[in-house]
């Protein structure tokens, strides 16, 4: 793999991780706001 391909692969992996985390964060925020 070239350096560009490695960077692209890492970026895709990070984006996928964030996509998994974001909905969870949104649910937690909504739960906290509804308690107030």
Low-confidence stretches: none
Count of discrete alpha- or pi-helical segments spanning 4 or more residues = 1
Largest sheet, described in full?
none
Beginning-to-end CA distance, first to last residue? 51 Å
Number of strands: 0
| Portion in strands | under 5%
| Helicity range | over 70%
> Which descriptor suits the 3D outline?
rod-shaped
* Count of the separate structural domains: 1
Radius of gyration, whole Å: 16 Å
N-to-C order of helices and strands: H
Provide mean pLDDT, rounded.
Answer: 91
Structural class of the secondary structure composition? Answer: mainly alpha
Compact summary:
The protein is mainly alpha-helical and 36 residues long. The chain is built from one helix and no strands.
Explain this structure to me?
This protein is mainly alpha-helical. It has one domain. It starts with a helix and ends with a helix. The chain contains one helix and no strands.
């Amino acid at each position: 793999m070239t350096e560009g391909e490695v960077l692209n692969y890492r970026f895709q992996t990070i984006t996928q991780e964030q996509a998994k985390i974001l909905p969870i964060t949104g649910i937690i925020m909504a739960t906290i706001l509804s308690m107030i």
